[in-house]
Amino acid sequence: METLLQQIVNGLVVGSVYALVALGYTMVYGILGLINFAHGDVLMVGALVALQVVLFLQKAFPLLGAVPTLLIALTVAMAVCMALGYIIERTAYRRLRNAPRLAPLITAIGVSFLLQTLAMIIWGRNYHSFPQLITTTPLQPVEGVFITPVQIIILVSSALLMTGLILLVNKTRLGRAMRATAENHRVASLMGVDTNKIIATTFIIGSALAAVAGVMFSSNYGVAHYAMGFTPGLKAFTAAVLGGIGNLGGAMVGGVVLGLVESIGAGYLGSATDLCHLPSWAQSASLIETCANGGSFELLSSNYQDIFAFVILGIVLIFRPTGLLGERVSDRA
Amino acid sequence: MPTDNTILELKDVQIAYGQIQAVKGIDFHVSTGELVCLIGANGAGKTTTLNAISGTLPIKSGEIRFAGQDISKLPAHLRLRQGLALVPEGRGIFTRLTVEENLRMGAYTRDDKEAIEQDLERVYSMLPRVKERLAQVAGTLSGGEQQMVAIGRALLSRPKLLLLDEPSMGLAPLVVEKIFEVIQTVVKEGMSILLVEQNANLALEFASRGYVMDGGRITLAGSGSELLNDPAVRSAYLGEA
Fold this sequence. Notes:
The complex is a heterodimer.
Chain A: H1 2-32, H2 39-60, H3 66-93, H4 102-123, E1 128-129, E2 139-142, E3 145-147, H5 149-171, H6 173-183, H7 185-190, H8 195-221, E4 223-224, H9 230-243, H10 248-272, H11 285-292, H12 306-319
Antiparallel strand pairs in A: 1-4, 2-3
Chain B: E1 6-17, E2 20-31, E3 35-40, H1 46-54, E4 61-66, E5 69-70, H2 76-82, E6 84-87, H3 99-106, H4 113-126, H5 128-131, H6 143-155, E7 161-165, H7 173-188, E8 192-196, H8 200-206, E9 209-214, E10 217-223, H9 224-229, H10 231-237
Parallel strand pairs in B: 3-8, 3-9, 6-7, 7-8
Antiparallel strand pairs in B: 1-2, 1-4, 4-5, 9-10
């Protein structure tokens, strides 16, 4: 039972980070029909910029507290990523707006490589340890279940950000223009909407969320690296597809569901594939001996947790390509 | 002839889709307060012309002047700000937005909150069926209701010139009647309208002037009643032998 609760906590934490990143994918897809494969690398840039700022502040202002240091780093990382998101849209995607769909997709992969290579040149190929500014001593709300203050902050702030985004999209004039542009660029421009501006804004918002996710990711795992955006990027994309790409609520649900499945799955994958569960006639002599001594022989350890995301992606694409919350694509007359 | 009172003027406008020349040099104008209609067969270039005036389609050559300015190069969203609104062919409703959100999109460029609310009330009074469905997602409306929302939405930008592309297409006669009632009301209030219609009989009946397009050219021009009584127009567009 503790294992399950613990894995749920872990799953919610990692799932809310996936959800923040998935929102960026789904917003851009909703408005342009483009899978922005460079989005995961924006997360990486956010984490590394934040790291750089933290290191600088610790050196220049050693008396500054942990919270202000982290907040300043986060603000700078968000600003840099927002600018980056704008530049990517402006220079790489805008001129391909009317090109066949494959062209911007390949360009997105190219932008991803470009960002990784630039980051490698700037920050090198090593793993950087991300300073643990907030105490990592875990709290124990329930006997045997641990949660760190960093994880609590991640949960609360991503919930706040997602609520803010939903309000922005559904209740404001900007959000209405975003939804109108997503549905029909041409008619939106007939309403006086500068659709280029709306599309740029979408990239900027998505990139800001990716920056936050990057800082969360690095704070939680304590590392930052030039290629760190790849796996969370791919998983967030999976989450967006799982929830129904183009659908904001779907990205949130997809992120959390994916985090939970991955975490719970990883928690039980080892013991579920323990060959000691096999009937004795199917076990070799050495295996019987290992098991008898209280050992185990796990075919798949929790290191295989990444397969869950992609198994899910496969299943969703086969059985429900529109995702959990995706609508059927139909326009009534 | 164009005068100081001219709100819209096209001078030798040519429009092409790639190699295909859709509009081959047309000249016409709309004066302030006029209802002008553009009639012609399918493929004559009427919708193409309206799209070019609204700025969603570039012109190849020529000039489009609106309220005394050359707007040929202006992007669509800035033309709306100048006072030019288009109700596009097929209505262009945002199907996933609610009816009220659709209408408010019409007032996107305005920030005079009180006046917007007043204008919304006016649209509701002109189109009572719209008011009953404000919270409904617009994609679930019938074609006639969608057309009313599209017209109401365009009016909310307070245009000087309203471009209407086939507002009666595919609609029941009662709905068409209602829509032409609204058109007459706004013309009476001084708005200028350029109307593209397949239903030439109905359009010419209300129009002060009309142009007949054929094969990308304007082949005939005259007052509404002149065209209505023109034997060539009657046989070609009014379904008479």
